[in-house]
Amino acid sequence: MGRIPWTELDLQLRRRGVTSVVIGGIATNLGVESTVRAAHEHGYAVVLPEDASSSRSAEMHTFAFEQIFPMLGRVAKADEIELQR
């Protein structure tokens, strides 16, 4: 989704009525963060499972989840997230 403007992902999600996305991955403060920002800018409700991302250092990971991500979405543990159709 970090590439939302250059792919059809946004269009496909909207066609399916998707309004929320759960985002995790590697490079918390790089790839994950850019994807979260893009999803937020496109109006999606973003959910961020803190234990489904990793970073080069614990400090970078912690900073992203404590300082940046709460402004862009809801931070949770993976087992706290309920997926609905």
Short structural description:
Helix content is 42%, strand content 13%.
Layout: helices, strands, pairs:
Layout: H1 9-15, E1 20-22, H2 28-41, E2 45-49, H3 58-72, E3 74-76
Parallel strand pairs: 1-2, 2-3
Helix pairs in contact: 2-3
Any overview of this molecule?
This protein has about 80 residues and is of the alpha/beta class. It is built from three helices and three strands. It has helices at about 10-15, 30-40, 60-70, and strands at about 20, 45-50, 75. A three-stranded parallel beta sheet has the order 1-2-3, covered by helices on one side. The longest helix is centred in the last third of the chain and has 15 residues, at about 60-70. It is globular and about 40 Å long. About 20% of the residues are buried. The model has no long low-confidence stretch (mean pLDDT about 90).
Number of helices: 3
Distance between the termini: 20 Å
Order of helices and strands: HEHEHE
Share of helix, binned: 40-55%
Which strand-content bin applies to the residues? 5-15%
Strand order of the largest sheet: 1-2-3
Which assembly state applies to the chains in this document?
Answer: single chain
Secondary structure category: alpha/beta
Could you describe the largest sheet, including whether it forms a barrel? 3 strands, parallel
